[in-house]
Amino acid sequence: MIKNTMIGSICALAIASLCGHGMLAHAQAPLLSVSVISQGDGKGYKVAATNNYSSPATELIVQVTYWRSSSVACGAANRGADGRCHFTVHRHMIPSAGWRGELGSVVPARWLIQPKETVPVTEIGPQAVGIASATNVAVIYDDGAVAGDRGVLRQMLAQRRHDLVDAEEALTILNKAAADPATDLTVLAASFSARAHLHRAQMDAARDPEIAHLDRYGPSGDPVCTTIAMYLKRGRAGEVANDNAAALSAAIRFTNGHIALLQAGAAPAQ
User: Fold this and answer.
1) pTM score > 0.90 for this model?
2) Domain hosting residue 110, numbered range
């Protein structure tokens, strides 16, 4: 778990560049405000985040600790001093192009939290009988400002740098494949799945074990290559279109959109 002394600390920083050449001083940016709304007895809770800053929030992590019903099995690690059973969950919202809606489309606006906007970020089910705490651990804004736990922000920025390089390399591969009429979509999809697992292993090796539970990568690997492989497999199955060109076009649109989103927040405000 993140050290309490670090949660809620505000980093008055700007991202000098997504390629990581250091950080610049920046006007202080606030964390997101997190609110919890009960859905009624036995129906759980909704958790929402409000952006009180002047720039859209492009990436964020919210941490919620809740009490569970006494009827739920509870190990010693989850048993509080008062005997109640508690669990902590995290919601990591990241820039992602084409994961919802039309294949290859740019990320919907709802994935960004605009200034003064409140957006639902997660739900806690009926197993919860109360909320102990709900906080914004870290946030990256579109103008380059960041706020929150410094260790978590380092990990978030490292993953964004990795994803940007990954997406640029993937775009080169996809463009080359699109220009080759002999491209085998099955082989290409398998190669991207393999790249996803390789990149997962690389990030595992570089990750701070204390905050590894905040990792945004799923078991299948990094989000760039995993999603490209998904598009190519859908194309092979005829869900995009029954030809390589349409599937590759969708994957290329996704990758271009993802690069643009990863670059959001890279430039420091003037």
Assistant:
1) no
2) 13-151
